[in-house]
Structures are given as structure tokens and as C-alpha cells.
Specification:
Radius of gyration: 23 Å
Number of helices: 13
Modified residues (N6-(pyridoxal phosphate)lysine): 58
CATH topology of the largest domain: TIM Barrel
Region (Disordered): 400-420
Active site: 350
Strand content: 15-25%
CATH architecture of the largest domain: Alpha-Beta Barrel
GO molecular function: diaminopimelate decarboxylase activity
Number of strands: 20
Biased composition (Basic and acidic residues): 411-420
């Protein structure tokens, strides 16, 4: 799998410079900000007229990531009070929405006072709480009702967010009641619907079918409202997957956008469609670099024990896959002459579940070499159990356009031990 990856020169420079600055063996994340901006710009440019792109910051909410994407995207999607703080600290202010189940009253009030564009309401109870808060602030608040629809046969994925029993959204059978509740709330205004049914979608044609289903249902959903002319937004969520196992075969985003454009052109009153993309925006910019601490064979299986592990990069364990691995030897000539064999790459944790990748064919690996795991820019460090075993947190290096310039996260910089 690693043969499909070529680490950019400025990332290789940043890895080597950081390694030289660390007294202990290295485990760190490196983020290619120019590549992130270029990828986001390409995704935005592919969208048809009347379609927006929001960044779901849950995928990676580090300040440098948000600051890089904010000038490119139309807005941000948030799901907690902590994410409100991060979004509002962005160097380029963008519109933002608040979604997700279990919203705190304090978070909803904070969101209103800080200028939230809209709420995605998840239940009838949330409608009532939101009305009370909006009334106390003497504010009329825009909302979208999140729908949990019944999906057509054959539309399924590894991670379903709708079409089955979930804590997300309001069942389509109860949608009329939810719309009525919003219409009768004097401080709420229904402006659209939100549907996020499936995640980890890797096939453009399957996702095309899913969007077509939403658009077919749109007129019926809209007609439930007391003032349908105010209901103009259809938020189709995200769910675009990353192919970690076949990295050269990624989701055909331009193809999806072309199909969506054709479909919208046939509609009498098409909605304003909004995507909320997280993983597919930020995954490709990240690299997790770990140093080999030990090599061993146990019951015939070779293990590379590395600095770091799943407490810093939980993505492979969470996804249940063997992540691609790139070998950066200290001595390339010696590595070319060394033995080629299958290795299982593990971390430092006292659990057999601390596995980053199994049976990776690598040549001439020795203690002190680096292994780099690409596609680490989304749902990697930010979902990890970083305090397990009290190992130090990894450094995070945000690499700018200059080959000489990299900006470590402040907390990580305090933990690094530079030579000298």
C-alpha cells in the first residue's frame, strides 16, 4: 500500500528537522497545510451553483487546520461548546451551525449569543428547550430539523446514522409533528432539513443514489411547513469516506458534483444544498511519524515496537484496518541490502490491541528507523485516548508553504526536549 504514497519534500524536511530537535525517539504528527488548502479549494471549485461546502471540524479541530480551511469553505459545522470556542477563535470568521444530539442548554445559549447561523434540532424535546432559550434572549432563531428517514433497500454502509434505530434525528414518521412544533414556536423559524444517513461512503454512485433519494423526498418534506417558501436549505451532511486500504482509488468527488448538478437542474424549486465534510477534507494532509524502538519475533510473527501507538493515533483501531506504512531508514543503502519480511507495527501500550498495521512487507528495518503513516489528518489524534499510560502527548507540526517553516502546537512544543 505504501508504494502509492510519496511524502512531499517539505514534509520530509520537517520530519528530519524535528527529529534532530528531539532527544528522545520521535512520535509526531505533521500536517501539510498547502496541500490541505489546495485540496479544499479543488473540492469547493467542483461544486455546482447553489451548493455549499462546510467543514465539519470534529474531523480535526486544531487551530491551524481550521484557519487553513476557513478561507476556502463556506462555513463550519460544530457539535459542542468546545468546538464553538475553537471556531470563534478562527482567524477568518465564517458562518457556523450547531448540530448533534445532547446539546447543553448552556451551549445553545452560548451559540445564540455568539452568532450561530442555525441549529440542527434532533428531537421534540430539543425544539422546546431551544424555543425557551431563544425567547429568553428575545431572538428569532433559524433551525433545520434533522430527519432519520427510512432508506431504500440496498442503501447501507458500515456506519449508519439513519434508516435504523439511532440517537440521531427525528424519525420520518414523526416529522410532521416536529415541523408543527417548530412552526408553533414563536422564536424559531424553520429554514430547512438536515439528513446525514451514512458514513464511510467510498462509492460515488452509491452516494449519488442517496442524494437522489433526499431530493426526491424534498418537496414532500418542505410541504409540511406552514411557510414552505421559507424552507430553502437541504443539508445532506457528509459521510464521504477515505479509502485507506487502496489509497490510489478514492471517492470521485467531481463525479458526484456533476451528477448533483444534473439532478438539481431538473427540479422546479431546488433547495440550497449544503455538504458538511470532515474526513474527506482533512485526512489527506496528515502524516504520523514514529521511531522504531525494538524489533522482535514472537511465535513466528515479526513485530516493530514503535514510539507512540494507538493512544496517539487511534484511527486504525477505530476503523478496524491495517494502515499503510512508509519506511524512512536512517541508512537507505543498508536498508536496500537488508531482509524483506512482513512486520506488524505496534506501539508502547500494555495491550495486544495497540496495533497500527499488520503484515507490512518492509525491507531492512532496524531500530532507529522511522515509519510514517499517511492519511492521518482526520479522526487520528483527536479521537485518541492520549492519557493512557501517561505517555507524553505527541508533537503536532503544521508545515507552511516554506520548506524551512514549521509551526509546532504550543502545548507540544513545551513537551519536546530539544538538543542542547
Amino acid at each position: 500500500m505504501a508504494e502509492h504514497f510519496r511524502i512531499p519534500g517539505h514534509i520530509l524536511d520537517a520530519i528530519e528537522a524535528h527529529r534532530q530537535a528531539c532527544r528522545d525517539p520521535m512520535a509526531a504528527f505533521f500536517y501539510d497545510l498547502p496541500a490541505l488548502a489546495a485540496h479544499g479549494s479543488a473540492m469547493k471549485a467542483a461544486l455546482p451553483s447553489g451548493v455549499e461546502l462546510y467543514y465539519a471540524i470534529k474531523a480535526n479541530s486544531e487551530a491551524a487546520i481550521i484557519d487553513t480551511l476557513a478561507p476556502v469553505v463556506d462555513g463550519l459545522e460544530l457539535s459542542s461548546g468546545g468546538e464553538i470556542e475553537r471556531a470563534c477563535a478562527c482567524s477568518t470568521p465564517r458562518p457556523w451551525v450547531l448540530s448533534g444530539p445532547g446539546k447543553l442548554d448552556a451551549d445553545m445559549r452560548e451559540a445564540m449569543t455568539r452568532g450561530v447561523e442555525a441549529f440542527h434540532v434532533e428531537s421534540l424535546g430539543e425544539v422546546a428547550r431551544l424555543q425557551a432559550i431563544a425567547a429568553s434572549l428575545d431572538r428569532v432563531q433559524s433551525v433545520l430539523v434533522r430527519i432519520n428517514p427510512s432508506l431504500p433497500a440496498g442503501l447501507n454502509s458500515r456506519l449508519r446514522m439513519a434508516g435504523t434505530a439511532t440517537p440521531f434525528g427525528i424519525d420520518e414518521a414523526q416529522l410532521a409533528d416536529a415541523v408543527q412544533a417548530v412552526d408553533e414556536a414563536p422564536n424559531l423559524m424553520l429554514v430547512g432539513f438536515h439528513v446525514h444517513a451514512m458514513s464511510h461512503q467510498k462509492c460515488e454512485q452509491r452516494h449519488q443514489r442517496l442524494l437522489a433519494f433526499y431530493l426526491e423526498r424534498w418537496p414532500e418534506w418542505r410541504a409540511l411547513a406552514r411557510h414552505p417558501e421559507q424552507v430553502v436549505q437541504l443539508n445532506v451532511g457528509g459521510g464521504i469516506g477515505v479509502n485507506y486500504l487502496q489509497p490510489s482509488e478514492q471517492f470521485d468527488w467531481p463525479g458526484l458534483c456533476r451528477a448533483l448538478e444534473r439532478r438539481l437542474s431538473t427540479m422546479h424549486e431546488p433547495p440550497l444544498v449544503r455538504f458538511e465534510i470532515g474526513r474527506f477534507l482533512s485526512a489527506f494532509c496528515g502524516y504520523y511519524a514514529v521511531e522504531v524502538l525494538d524489533t522482535k519475533v514472537s511465535h513466528g510473527e515479526g513485530f516493530l515496537v514503535c514510539r507512540g501507538g494507538t493512544h496517539q493515533f487511534r484511527l486504525p483501531a477505530a476503523q478496524g484496518h491495517d494502515h499503510p506504512v512508509i519506511h524512512l531508514p536512517r541508512d537507505p543503502r543498508r536498508a536496500r541490502e537488508g531482509e524483506r519480511r512482513a512486520w506488524t507495527v505496534v506501539g508502547q501500550l500494555c495491550t495486544p490491541k495497540d496495533v497500527l498495521s499488520r503484515q507490512q512487507a518492509l525491507q531492512g528495518v532496524v531500530v532507529g528507523d522511522l515509519l510514517v503513516l499517511p492519511l492521518a489528518g482526520a479522526y487520528g489524534y483527536n479521537i485518541s485516548h492520549a492519557d493512557f499510560l501517561c505517555h507524553p502527548r505527541p508533537d503536532q507540526i503544521f508545515v507552511s508553504a516554506s520548506r524551512e517553516s514549521s509551526v509546532p502546537e504550543t502545548r507540544a512544543q513545551r513537551r519536546a526536549e530539544p538538543v542542547g
